[in-house]
Amino acid sequence: MSIVATEAAEFLEDFDRFACAAWSVVCPQPMVYELPQAAITTHLQAVVDGSLPIDTLVINVPPGSSKSLLSNVIWPAWLWARDPSCTVIAVSHTAALVNRFSAKFRLLIKSEWFQLRWPYVQLSKDTASKLSMRTTALGERIGVSAGGSITGSHADVIIVDDLVDAKDSNNTPAILARNEWHEEVLMSRWKNENHKLEVCIAQRLHESDLPAVLMARGATALVMPAMGPGTSTPVWMDPREGDELLAPKRLSKATLRSKQQTLGSAGYSAQYMQDPIPQSGGIVKPEWLAHEWSGVLPDGSHTYIVADTSHGENSDNDPTGLLVVSKHGASLRIIDYRTGVWDFPEQVAQLESAIKQYQPTCVYVEAAASGRSIVQTLRLRIPYIVGVPPHGPKETRLRAITPYLESGAVMLPEGAPWVPVFRKEVISFPRAIHDECVDVLSLACSRLLSDAPATGEVQASAVDALLAGLM
Q1: pTM of the full structure
Q2: So what CATH class is 286-470?
Q3: Which of 154, 223, 305, 328 has the fewest CB atoms within 10 Å, measured from its CB?
Q4: What residues contact 294, with CB distance under 8 A and at least 6 apart?
């Protein structure tokens, strides 16, 4: 056996060696080999070897980790070298990226380096498309942009390389629409339902992005923040401790500081730390919602109910939120929060039930969508129900009440089971899947605290004293 033939056989058993050797064919810059590249090649090998619990792999890495070249260009070529009848569907979020990666893949397959070692991998003469190509053994690599049509195509392997552009990280409807396309369209394109390999490689951009969906389903997840340590998997253990860098050559501390300044804490946390909800919070900081109350309400308190109802025809996936609060001077004590995906009759029934239980002074309903109809339905029986039109975007409304939150004027009930979810949704905005908590909290503060000064940094222990002085 010749040296080239021996080398070719060894490459087929070791994707890492194959990737390092093939790199110069598709990229003019030398390969920078650090932890991300080692981890990515190890896991792509494991997918083929069957070393993972299920045949779905999620890899979350920062930008600049060679993820697209390794997973979307070089790995499919390795799969063809092992089996030229293999069919791969490769997804990227834009048509321009699909074109770029398809062109690089074709360059690799037709290169002298590749053909010298695996001459049996030949493109069919009728392969004219730049996006999709077929071998004489009837294997295919089909390039498709997210949301695009793939009617008639079926795959052994599906690669999802960034289903969503980073600029859409705050666009929850767009992210959910891409998830729906993945579930309803892409996942119907398997050749064999009993043998399907999927790799999703991306940055974490949103609490409900595709990596989150796949991880909830049990996918192996390799999560690699720019400063470690990251997760371990059945085939990998992150060797870092403390705040060790993932890629000191490509992502130095100075580079990361620059990225953080450019992207802000939320963008940096999502793209570089693989945490779509930064520990420091988004618009609302975690410490602002750390103030709690317990026991009985102060004398002279008045109770109010604030409601954000679902959008009628979209109520199948749009929850309603009901917030019960007590106002005492310049403070709000939240008493209860209820939420659910309710149709119109159930929305009315839930609101009436809360009114009967808490006997509020006034009921405020966001007068949008079904909210207007609810106000009209209940006004004869409940004259103190008020429809409040929303003013401005949700983010603007939330920012307007941050002085009240920062000062500790809003307190959550100690030990209430719904508080952790409520707190997380507010802190996560705008990257949470739902925002009912934000809507009702913004409405409650804007209606009930707008005349009360609530600015400046206040220690939690001094909140009550400050508010008492304002009464």
Answers
A1: 0.68
A2: alpha beta
A3: 154
A4: 413, 414, 415
Domain ranges of the chain: 3-272, 286-470
User: What length does the chain have?
Assistant: 471
Residue among 397, 410, 394 nearest 449 (CA):
410
Q: What is the pLDDT of residues 42-98, one digit of tens each?
A: 999 999 999 998 889 999 999 989 999 999 999 999 999 999 999 999 999 999 999
Give the burial string for 197-221 (b: 16+ CB within 10 Å, else e): bbbbbbbbbbbbbbbbbbbeeebbb
Q: Using an 8 Å Cβ cutoff, are 133 and 183 in contact?
A: no
Identify whether 229 is preceded by a cis peptide bond (ω within 30 of 0).
yes
- Which element (helix H / strand E) includes 142? strand 140-145
Q: Assign a CATH topology to domain 3-272.
A: Rossmann fold (3.40.50)
- H/E segment holding residue 183: helix 172-184
Query: Got the DSSP string for 407-432?
Result: HT-EEEETT-TTHHHHHHHHHHTTSS
What the block records as the tokens of 349 is 């029934």
* Strands 331-340 vs 410-413: parallel, antiparallel or unpaired: parallel
